[in-house]
Design goal:
Layout lengths: L12 E4 L1 H5 L9 H13 L4 E6 L12 H9 L5 E5 L3 H10 L3 E7 L2 H8 L3 H17 L5 E7 L12 H14 L3 E6 L6 H15 L3 E6 L6 H10 L4 E4 L19 H10 L8 H14 L9 H4 L5 H4 L2 H10 L2
Parallel strand pairs: 1-8, 2-3, 3-4, 4-5, 5-6, 6-7, 7-8
Length: 326
């Protein structure tokens, strides 16, 4: 029996998507000033990649109407890589004008979900990415384009999604001009074996242009799925503080992987994220107060960090913990 364990990355990036994916999924509308506080505190805690919003009409998502202001604030924070979601060319033009470091164009591998969510077929989204790439290049912008393939493991509307179709669309996005691609378990259907298989194939196709894994914790497998992706070399993951967010087409969903739980798991495994988890937990407490009445998720906040954590964590994380636990 082969007992060799896969070599895991020594460092990983957690891209905070709570200010977009999280807030768009709940009824509460946070003020711009509260969002600024969240942004600054997340940066102070060591987060260096943050999705600050989405350029969609305010009548559709009033929760994200101040994305341009948040993007401008993010650009003023040193070392912060600020991303936004854009559903179409008009949104991309706003991202380019605002100087976003990266714009994420969502594509659903499920035909039914694509029509319900974006009112376009998957291949029409690919064509839109080509137009976005042309506009980006014509503007002389350095904003990167990420094509995010969602419902990569199944769909509540369509059911089965063929992995071959997921990979075809991922390649099509690259051919259309996307600089990066990512895969998302939009409705929480994935398990670690599925993730290991599909992500290995995706990395083989895209190489270092494979950018990120996006997992929902709908059925309690979010962190296990992250671990499976780590085993095939993926080292960047989306997460939401307090596990908020989710897909409106996934009834009963329990939200995204919680940022604080993911940071703890990675730190405990000696995978460096550069995040001060004590500060992150303090921010979670503040955000929980702002979102009173909303359902929050995650488990680390209940029990806190174990006393042995500093001994197991990478040096940068251990130092931050030991300062707070003498």
């Amino acid at each position: 029996m082969n007992t060799d364990s896969p070599r895991l990355p020594r460092a990983a990036v957690i891209r905070e998507v709570g200010l977009r994916d999280g807030l768009q999924s709940i009824a509460t509308i946070l003020s711009t000033e509260r969002k600024r506080e969240w942004l600054r505190a997340a940066h102070a805690a060591g987060q260096r990649e943050i999705e600050v919003g989405s350029f969609v009409p305010a009548r559709l998502l009033p929760q994200l109407a101040d994305t341009a202001e948040l993007l401008a604030d993010a650009k003023g924070l040193p070392g912060l890589f600020a991303s936004v979601l854009v559903p179409n060319l008009r949104g991309a033009e706003s991202a380019i004008a605002g100087g976003a470091d990266l714009m994420i164009v969502p594509l659903s591998a499920s035909h039914a979900h694509s029509l319900a969510n974006l009112r376009k077929t998957p291949d029409e989204v690919v064509a839109e990415v080509a137009r976005i790439r042309a506009a980006r290049d014509a503007a002389g912008s350095k904003t990167l384009i990420e094509g995010g393939v969602g419902t990569a493991f199944g769909c509540t509307l369509q059911g089965e999604v063929d992995p071959a179709e997921v990979l075809r669309l991922m390649q099509a996005l690259l051919d259309a001009g996307a600089d990066r691609v990512s895969l998302a378990d939009t409705v929480g259907y994935a398990d670690p074996a599925m993730v290991r298989s599909l992500f290995a194939q995706a990395v083989k196709i895209a190489g270092d242009r494979f950018w990120c894994g996006h997992f929902h914790d709908t059925r309690g497998l979010g962190l296990a799925n992250v671990h499976a992706a780590l085993e095939v070399g993926v080292a960047r993951f989306d997460a939401c503080l307090a596990g908020i967010g989710g897909c409106p087409h996934a009834p009963g969903a329990s939200g995204n992987v919680a940022t604080e739980d993911l940071a703890y798991m990675l730190g405990s495994m000696r995978i460096d994220t550069g995040i001060d988890i004590a500060q992150l937990l303090a921010l979670r407490q503040r955000v929980a107060g702002w979102l009173a009445g909303e359902t929050l998720h995650g488990t680390l906040w209940r029990a806190g960090l174990p006393r042995t954590f500093a001994a197991r964590a990478p040096s940068s994380l251990a130092a931050s913990v030991s300062r707070r636990n003498p």
